[in-house]
Amino acid sequence: MKTPKEPDLNSDDLLIALLKNAPGSHISGEEIARTLDMSRSAVWKKIKDLEEVGYEIQAVPHLGYRLTGLPERLVPEEIRFNLKTRALGRRIFIFPTTDSTNRVALDMGRKGAPHGQAILAETQTAGRGRLGRVWNSPAGKGIYLSVILRPKLELAEVSKLTLAAAVAVAETLEDAGIDGVRIKWPNDLLIGGKGRKICGILTEMVAEADRVECVILGIGINVNSAQVDLPPQATSLKLESGKDFDRNALTANLLSRLEVRLGQVTGAAWNKTRAAWNQRSAVKGKLIKVTTMNHSVQGIAQNIDPSGALIVKTKSGLKRVLSGDIVL
Ligand code: BT5
Questions:
Q1: Rounded alpha-carbon distances, angstroms, from residue 241 to 26, 52, 148, 174
Q2: What parts of the chain have a pLDDT lower than 50?
Q3: What is the pLDDT of residues 113-170, one digit of tens each?
Q4: Which residue's C-alpha comes closest to atom 10 of ligand 1?
Q5: How far is CA 117 from the centre of its chain?
Q6: By the number of CB atoms within 10 A of the CB, which of 13, 155, 206, 274 ranks highest?
Q7: Same domain, 136 and 40
């Protein structure tokens, strides 16, 4: 599949900033041309390009241009406008459709793509969960994001990235005004008493011997999805709140939150992230059964420990579980 060209749109970023800085009022073509150091006709051409990607811009003779609407589709400039990161999402590829953003990111990661590069898609034809499961990816309704990470971590520590990412997603949903966000170990974000799934995380890795070459953090969030688009036990931001959400602004906040939490998986900072995770645990104090590849553990779920393992209080004492699926 052809990779979309990474846009070199610095002047577009500036133009968007200029239009946004003049809320409710017009900014003249002449002023834009002067600020961006380009001709009036080049400005006109850039305005047309922005309209093409979904910005609504009113042009009034003698007054100039006024921004009247933001794009609904995912747009790199619009994400960058709200981004507060150093590395994450500074390079973004957005596909109208792809099989799986994690598959694309793994390929790019193997070919040397830099830390922080992000891949998004409007829809996925083979969105994947763990163990070959499917991730429903209705077009234009969700965030299907994969980020390439090059962490300086031991192999055994990589699972902490999934836990940190779950905290970052929870914070993003809370910032969007959603209450009752809970994390079901290790990778599901649930909402409300019925525990409906709003987000899933799939962490994949390229490693050699015990050296981590890159980690792909795949995150699927149901944003404006309707119930018919989703499995019965799932929900979306829209279903929870009755409102539509701006996916560009959410993605920017998600990347910003992720950069902070992914930077807190070692040393004293890890305790902060671990506490934030434990605070939102959907399983703590509940009777659970965790199944792993070849055995299962039953007992009362406790906190996650400093190594990122889930502690389960069983009849034969405390057990540490590092991976698996939970049945509540
Ligand atoms: C996950 O797996 O929850 C990880 C999902 C990761 C998806 C992202 S999207 C961007 C990136 N690119 C990819 O190809 N994947 C990642 P797991 O814990 O195995 O859960 C999968 C199960 O969740 C399915 O078997 C369904 O029961 C349920 N499910 C499927 N689609 C869903 C959706 N949109 N919302 C909520 N639940 C869903």
A1: 34, 30, 31, 12
A2: 6-9
A3: 999 999 999 999 999 999 999 999 999 999 999 999 999 999 989 999 999 999 999 9
A4: 144
A5: 12
A6: 274
A7: no
Distance, in Å, from the CA atom of 247 to the CA atom of 48, rounded to the nearest integer, reads 22
Strands 181-184 and 142-149: unpaired
Residue 324 Cβ inside 6 Å of ligand 1? The answer reads: no
Please tell me the residue having the least CA distance from ligand 1 atom 25.
133
- Residue of 104, 135, 219, 238 to mutate, ligand 1, most atoms within 8 A of C-beta: 135
135 lies in the same domain as 245: yes
CA distance 141 to 147: 19
Strand, coil or helix: 55: coil
In a shared domain, residues 53 and 168? no
CB-ligand 1 contact for 127 (6 Å cutoff) = yes
**Total structural domains in the chain?**
3
Cα(263) to ligand 1 centroid in Å equals 25
